[in-house]
Specification:
Helix content of chain A: 25-40%
CATH class of chain A: Alpha Beta
Number of strands of chain A: 5
Radius of gyration of chain A: 14 Å
Strand content of chain A: 15-25%
Strand order of the largest sheet of chain A: 1-2-3-5-4
Largest interface: A-B, 31 and 31 residues
Number of helices of chain A: 3
Structural class of chain A: alpha+beta
Oligomer: homodimer
CATH superfamily of chain A: HIT-like
CATH architecture of chain A: 2-Layer Sandwich
Largest sheet of chain A: 5 strands, antiparallel
């Protein structure tokens, strides 16, 4: 981890922080259409998964698995979508999204389908608290 | 690996086989718009990354890394896209796609953007031979 890790401004603008895990910062995408977490390894200058060394990649895999299990336990999705794209935001980040057959993009991927719709603030805080507790309990 | 592993019919229809790695079958998406590999762990009944046990997930990570490095060496992409979605094809499969700033979907994800355009057969064979050689040399 880099002490001077900085989150990309676009991620900062679109998300709320859930917690820090061993490697990654866990963010909640502030889009009420989908339960959507983003994991950002807290190191500078990473763009691709293959920029991680093998040990870090394994840790990131563990953290993706934890995020997936927490989303599954809370939202009972029909499918999880896990993706490292980064065509628009160059800082390495991994999407972990809970998808349902009745969500507004199904079965298409979520990116670029609908304008982001922020959570109502108290609902967002409640969700953030619940997620932070789940990560703290499991990690 | 399951001896009776069967590829999903949609993957069979849309791809050509490159090779088998330790865990995954490597497929070339038969879409000349993008250099696009798909890794399918050769086990039955997998839908999610979290259906893999940890050892298998680490092996899959190694194989994704190898596929990424081979695409990068051959196509010099501006970005790699790595994703396990599976909203339409329920068999666990991982996309590894070489993206360029001048490709026809950039910066959007590739899924659902354009009708698939098959390679010209001799170009496809040449690409398959080159990729198979690269995997055989590296693995």
């Amino acid at each position: 981890m880099d002490r001077d890790f900085l989150l990309h401004p676009q991620l900062l603008a679109d998300t709320a922080m859930v917690c820090d895990l061993g490697l990654s910062r866990v963010l909640l995408m502030d889009d009420a259409h989908w339960p959507w977490l983003i994991l950002v390894p807290r190191r500078r200058q990473l763009r691709e998964l293959i920029d991680l060394d093998r040990e870090e990649r394994i840790v990131l895999g563990d953290e993706i698995e934890l995020a997936s299990r927490i989303l599954r336990a809370r939202f009972n999705p029909d499918k999880l979508n896990v993706a490292a794209l980064g065509n628009q935001v160059e800082q390495l980040h991994v999407h972990v999204i809970a998808r349902h057959r009745n969500d507004p993009a199904w079965p298409a991927p979520v990116w670029g389908r609908l304008p982001r719709r922020s959570y109502e603030p108290s609902a967002r805080q409640s969700l953030l608290d619940g997620l932070a507790l789940a990560f703290a309990t499991a990690a």
